[in-house]
Amino acid sequence: MAVDLAPSPALADLARRTATFIREVVIPVEERHRGVVRSEDVRRHLQQAAKQAGIFAPHVAREYGGLGLDMLGRAAVFEEAGYSLLGPLALNIAAPDEGNMHLLEAVATGEQKERYLRPLAAGEVRSCFAMTEPAPGAGSDPGALTTCATRVDGGWRIDGRKWFITGADGAGFAICMARTSGQQGEAGGATMFLVDAGNPGMKTVRHIDTLDESLYGGHVELAFDNCVVGEDAVLGQVDQGFRHAQVRLGPARMTHCMRWLGIARRAQDIAVARAAERRLFGSRLGELGMVQQMIADNEIDIAASRGLILRACWELDRKESASQSTAIAKTFCAEAIWRVVDRAVQICGALGISGDVLLSRYLREVRPFRIYDGPSETHRWAIARRVMRRHDAGAAQ
Q: Do the beta carbons of residue 155 and residue 231 sit within 8 Å?
């Protein structure tokens, strides 16, 4: 079946306007703050500017103030937004809010959408997704979930510990995954709960010091201790949390890839500009064979990453499982984007590791992507298992 990847005129125009907005409005702010912003004033300023430019919340349904793009449409716009570390924040498509909006649109009740999705889509509040736990709890293996939710009069009591909860600092609410049946290690029995920030049973334990710093709201360890919520806090169906989470995980992995691909392009542009102007050994740096190889390899990694993203998004838009294509794309992109930024640093030499350009910041930001959303090793294991199952199924026929 033919796959037409050419954007419509309207989508191409939106991508162009996003690219212009990032260069003219966002990058000056990024450079002033060295890529790391913790100010609500700055966040609100950037988001208001994006609203005025008509590019805000492109992924959200028009009913909730967005532009209603499908996954292929998001690929074009999110990559342009990701050209700056602050671009996703400005367009309200940064993790974890973007993935949470997608989940709420798909799973929440009408009342929950009004209470949580609408203000989140408008940038009035932020959110977090409380899934990962300290060892031996849930991480790459969600079935290791230890946080429990127990029925009480009028609702549920949540108890457990979460860590590496991105964006939790200042979030208006959390989507918390807790076990409501079964035992640790079992694939089912989890439920998602909406927990408001003011709940006295949800407390910040600490801010985790990490290699990356640009994700707004940081990475936080949370304690759920006698955290009581009502029946209306259940997101989706009881005991169906892992199934509902799949609605979020595949698309969220792809949107991560889209955003970081923008940074890979930015790093390549910085390196190429340096190679064009810097003269060594009687010629421009970009005329030396080893530098040309790095420039070429960067172009190959960028193009291959984009192709894998588009293929996975095409499958997602067709409502296919896309488990294999999203795992392949996530694994390749996480490693390819790291290679691109690392080569860009090498091409720029001393300038690359200095604070005069943001390449060293980009290097610190993209390295954790090989761990976030499932480490490359876990995805490779899953990819290989699917291949073996396909072989076994064919052999049995």
A: yes
- Compute CA 292 distance to the chain's CA centroid, rounded to the nearest angstrom: 31
Residue 65 near residue 118, CB atoms below 8 Å: yes
Contact 199, 223 (CB under 8 A): no
Structural contact between residues 99 and 129, judged by C-beta atoms closer than 8 angstroms: yes
CATH code, residues 9-121: 1.10.540.10
pLDDT band at 47 (very low <50, low <70, confident <90, very high): very high
Amino acid letter, 285: L
- Strand, coil or helix: 179: strand
Tens of pLDDT, residues 248-262: 989 999 999 999 999
Q: What angle, 0 to 180 degrees and rounded to 10, lies between the N-to-C axes of helices 323-348 and 376-396?
A: 140
At residue 6, the pLDDT reads 80
Q: Could you tell me where in the chain the CATH 1.10.540.10 domains are found?
A: 9-121
Size of the chain in residues? 397
Cβ burial, residue 325 (10 Å; 0-12/13-18/19+): buried
DSSP secondary structure letters along 141-157 = -GGG---EEEEETTEEE
The verdict on pTM exceeding 0.85 is yes
54-67: string of b/e by CB count within 10 Å (b at 16+)? ebbbbbbbeebbbb
**What is the DSSP code (8-state) at residue 240?**
B
Superfamily of domain 127-235: Butyryl-CoA Dehydrogenase, subunit A, domain 2 (2.40.110.10)
At residue 378, does pLDDT exceed 80? yes
**Residue 186, pLDDT score:** 78
The predicted pLDDT at position 188 comes to 84
CA–CA separation, 186 and 335 (whole Å): 31
| Over residues 38-67, mean pLDDT | 98
Q: What is the DSSP string of 109-149?
A: -HHHIIIIIHHHHTTSS-EEEE---STTSSSS-GGG---EE
Give the per-residue pLDDT at 117: 98
Average pLDDT in the chain: 96
CB 116 within 8 A of CB 122: no
- Give the DSSP H or E segment for 384: helix 376-396
3-class DSSP state for residue 82? coil
Q: Where in the chain is the domain with CATH 1.20.140.10?
A: 242-396
pLDDT, residue 193, reads 98
